[in-house]
Amino acid sequence: xxxxxxxSEVDVDAHPMSRLLDVLRVDLGxxxxxxxxxxxxxxxxxxxxxxEPVCSCLVPFSQAEGTNVRSIEGLGDxxxxxxxxxxxxxxxxxxxxxxxxxxxxxxxxSPSLSDVQTALAGNLCRCTGYSAIYRAVLKWRGVSPDxxxxx
Amino acid sequence: MRDALGGLTPxxxxxxxxxxxxxxxxxxxxxxxxxxxxxxxxxxATYGWGCDVAELEVDPDTFEVKPIRLTAVQEFGxxxxxxxxxxxxEGGTAQGLGYALLERVVMRNGAMANGxxxxxxxxxxxxxxxxxxxxxxxxxxxxxxxxxxxxxxxMDGPAPAVVNALRxxxxxxxEIPATPEHLSTCASL
Amino acid sequence: MRTAIxxxxxxxxxxxxxxxxxxxxxxxxxxxxxxxFVALNFGTLRERAFVDIWALRELRDITATGDTLVIGALxxxxxxxRSPVVAGWLPMLIEASRQVGGPQIQxxxxxxxxxxxxxxAGDSLPVFAAVGATIVLRSSNEERRVAFNEFYTGYRATxxxxxELIVAIEVPRVDGRQWFRKVGTxxxxxxSKVVAAGVRGDEPRFALGxxxxxxxxxxxxxxxxxxxxxxxxxxxxxxxxxxxxxxxxTADYRRRVAVNLLRRFWSDTAD
Lengths: 151, 189, 271
Hints:
The structure holds three protein chains of three kinds.
Chain A: E1 2-5, E2 8-11, H1 20-27, E3 46-49, E4 52-55, E5 68-70, H2 80-87, H3 97-104, H4 113-119, H5 131-140
Parallel strand pairs in A: 1-5
Antiparallel strand pairs in A: 1-2, 3-4, 3-5
Helix pairs in contact in A: 2-5
Chain B: H1 10-17, E1 34-35, E2 40-41, E3 49-58, E4 65-75, H2 82-101, E5 107-108, E6 111-112, E7 130-136, H3 153-156, H4 158-169, H5 180-185
Parallel strand pairs in B: 4-7
Antiparallel strand pairs in B: 1-2, 3-4, 5-6
Helix pairs in contact in B: 2-4
Chain C: E1 9-12, H1 16-24, E2 28-30, H2 36-41, E3 49-52, E4 62-65, E5 68-72, H3 77-81, H4 84-89, H5 91-98, H6 103-106, H7 111-117, H8 125-130, E6 134-138, E7 143-147, H9 148-151, E8 152-154, E9 157-158, E10 165-172, E11 177-184, E12 192-200, E13 205-209, E14 216-217, H10 219-226, H11 230-240, H12 251-268
Parallel strand pairs in C: 1-3, 2-3
Antiparallel strand pairs in C: 4-5, 5-10, 6-7, 6-10, 8-9, 11-12, 12-13, 13-14
């Protein structure tokens, strides 16, 4: 079945009821996308389908056909948001980080702190208390963390 | 460090020579007397200190608690890596908040009945307020580079701070997590 | 232990008629999969044959035609949040949609799925109950409509017949101020402990989830509201719901909060 993955056409033969998460990790060897819970609760498995963040543990592979899927590997090694995650120590154990970064890509221009929190409400992090993640995302969008106010 | 690396940056050194490793073992100073066999003398040569402030709102209809701001003042000798230290404090404070308000362990027949991320509820972004961190420096002569420990300290204060805030509000809270169900049955103070 | 994929059979429907034929054949529809795949992940999935209806674009539209807002069964929570039509007609559905899970779930969960899943805790259900929505069901033979307050026949039981698919939810013009509140286990990614929607017009309506086997309205409470008898309405509501103790909350808390929410609905929507 054909779909676009990280900008390139791929053709994968897998059971249509396979989780997209497993097609990425097992069939394609792209282990950047993580399984945190298997129930759409933690967001560690987040990928973008046609630009929208979804939990890949809940996507039947059948539904990826003809779509544009982006996993964390598709960001490359030097995306500005990745750099800021490093600089701000937005990752401690790192298990939430791939999903968190992809979900954060949907944050729009000039976000408030509340906008960032809402965009990341589907991504659980146990290590950071989210603070460093907010700093990274706000800086990426050109907002000084002190300048962003909460709700 | 630049001397040890012959004037190179870590990246340059690594590119040229590969990994560079140094091993040192922390030896407590001789003025700390602790006998590991008899368990006598100074078990704790020093302490880390914390002061946590929790600002909350309580919904009068639902008893839901909304944390508005958490402030964590921590004195742990010296932050050797301030960004990592700050991250530990923020993360531990958030965990303490979950401990205080959200994380109820339900046991049935000796086993945990809510051991999934759907029903063991840790704080999401919308449950976690801004966390102000103040790191006080008070170098401890017995610790490496003046540092004490920081692993556990951030988790110690938030739950008591939250409970004290709720008690200050007038609810006789005596357990955590201080769930809305618990608050709805608390006596008034 | 996850359900073994090799035991499962999924076929994609190319058209609605295609889907209806497969549903008649005993296949279970899969759309956003936010319920079906949770069951699959936890090995509690009982069905084995599925029809993938996600790509049926014609079931995803949200349109206003005359006096009816038609929400396609495959419209997602995100579709509603972004819909100017819904913003004008049924803003409390947007409020409800924003509180479902998080963005990832909102991008995939559908209203048809929420209705078909028949959980008493479904977040959109009190909204549909309070506005007197109609569920549009289609089979290979016919299309029929069922009033929302007749749709649930018991705990996770619906009036759907074999071979039927929910194709749309129809909402009449809403006469009155809209009000919605969800009380979850936390501020996001939460199953509701109590969820309520209200409409305050000449005939006030107040619907609740998570306080009984299905989404409920309490007619005697609504009747009392018509004469502004909030005390009477509160008492009637309290007597008319059947909340339980469960892993998330207690019957006492739910009952107490349901009454508080009724009062808050009434005071918030006053002139």
